[in-house]
């Protein structure tokens, strides 16, 4: 089990770096090789959602305490909603820092419901967490396979709707197309697959490595060709991305399973624990890094392909240390909170010592 968890730890790290890769390469799409790299990273958000479904179901089934539905929502949603609100405020203020007067005219209801920049991911996760108790009940009644099939059909329809709309074919109303990137049905299959994977891992991994590699190569070729021919290279919501993301999940998980990771477990867990903060903060760090470079006079430092690679490395390192700082601050605040609780409950503290 330890090795299995390390596999997911590595997946979280790789996906966090891949999100950064998408946003960095998107600035350099005039280079052919950069285009291929950008498409290569398209698995990151789907795999993040797969892991969300997996870990939620895994921890839920291992937890021996029977909590109420309200306690479930309080326990899990607060871990998403609180960071979402905080980072939403940070990005809104930062992106309007030169025109603070516009803060009074923004449509905050729309911002909260749709996310801001890359924060749409948290809007998706909130929706998926809300319906998880229903999905769990279906799995408890041994309806896992039908649920997986139905979720696949639903997600394929919604993702296909966005893709076909780009080609001039409408199978979904425009309002659904407009907000398809944050709607629960669009991402439902990945989440349900994560739940299914948590309880049927051995069956789902019973595929030859050569078949997985071949499937991944074919799916990647299809994705690149599709993106080029239909001019949908900026989309992460389309059927070819679904296919590519699933083969990428199997490929990456299979590769990590063959690595001897035990000696690196502590480091992997550290980096894995930073992946959520990395995702939330990396867009801010990209902006700060590029702005600071221009201020000190290196206006062409990040030009060209080598400049893109340098920007990725610098941003990754800067974001890592920023996340380390956030972890230190969070630890300090939690420590002070614990001290206050102990001081306010001296009788309970004495009882603990006696017991």
TrEMBL record:
The keyword Transmembrane helix applies. It is a multi-pass membrane protein. InterPro entries: Acyl_transf_3_dom (IPR002656). Keywords: Acyltransferase, Cell membrane, Membrane, Transferase, Transmembrane, Transmembrane helix. GO terms for biological process: enterobacterial common antigen biosynthetic process. Its main location: membrane. Residues 9-322 form the Acyltransferase domain. GO terms for molecular function: O-acetyltransferase activity. One of its GO terms (cellular component) is plasma membrane. The chain crosses the membrane at residues 40-59, 80-97, 117-135, 147-167, 179-199, 211-229, 241-259, 279-302, 308-333. It is found in: Cell membrane. PANTHER family: O-ACETYLTRANSFERASE WECH. Belongs to the acyltransferase 3 family. This is Acyltransferase. It comes from Vallitalea guaymasensis.
């Amino acid at each position: 089990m330890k090795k299995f968890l390390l596999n997911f730890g590595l997946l979280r790290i790789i996906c966090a770096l891949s999100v950064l890769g998408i946003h960095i390469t998107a600035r350099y799409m005039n280079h052919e090789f950069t285009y291929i790299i950008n498409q290569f990273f398209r698995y990151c958000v789907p795999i993040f959602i797969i892991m969300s479904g997996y870990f939620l179901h895994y921890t839920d089934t291992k937890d021996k305490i029977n909590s109420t539905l309200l306690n479930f929502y309080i326990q899990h949603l607060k871990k998403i909603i609180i960071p979402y609100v905080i980072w939403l405020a940070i990005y809104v203020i930062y992106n309007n820092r030169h025109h603070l007067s516009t803060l009074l005219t923004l449509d905050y209801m729309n911002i909260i419901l749709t996310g801001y920049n890359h924060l749409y991911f948290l809007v998706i996760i909130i929706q998926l967490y809300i319906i998880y108790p229903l999905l769990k009940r279906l799995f408890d009644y041994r309806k896992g396979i039908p649920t997986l099939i139905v979720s696949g059909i639903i997600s394929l329809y919604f993702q296909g709707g966005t893709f076909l709309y780009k080609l001039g074919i409408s199978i979904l109303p425009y309002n659904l197309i407009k907000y398809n990137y944050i709607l629960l049905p669009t991402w439902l299959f990945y989440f349900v697959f994560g739940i299914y994977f948590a309880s049927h891992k051995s069956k789902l991994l019973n595929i030859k490595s050569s078949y997985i590699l071949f499937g991944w190569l074919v799916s990647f070729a299809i994705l690149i060709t599709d993106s080029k021919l239909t001019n949908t290279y900026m989309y992460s919501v389309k059927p070819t991305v679904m296919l590519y993301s699933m083969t990428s999940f199997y490929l990456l998980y299979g590769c990590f399973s063959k690595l001897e990771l035990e000696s690196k477990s502590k480091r992997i867990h550290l980096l894995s624990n930073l992946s959520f903060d990395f995702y939330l903060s990396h867009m801010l760090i990209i902006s700060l890094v590029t702005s600071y470079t221009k201020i000190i006079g290196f206006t062409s430092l990040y030009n060209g392909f080598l400049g893109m690679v340098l920007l990725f490395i610098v941003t990754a390192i800067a974001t890592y240390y920023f996340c380390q700082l956030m972890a230190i601050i969070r630890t300090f605040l939690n420590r002070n909170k614990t001290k206050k609780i102990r001081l306010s409950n001296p009788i309970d503290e004495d009882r603990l010592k006696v017991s």
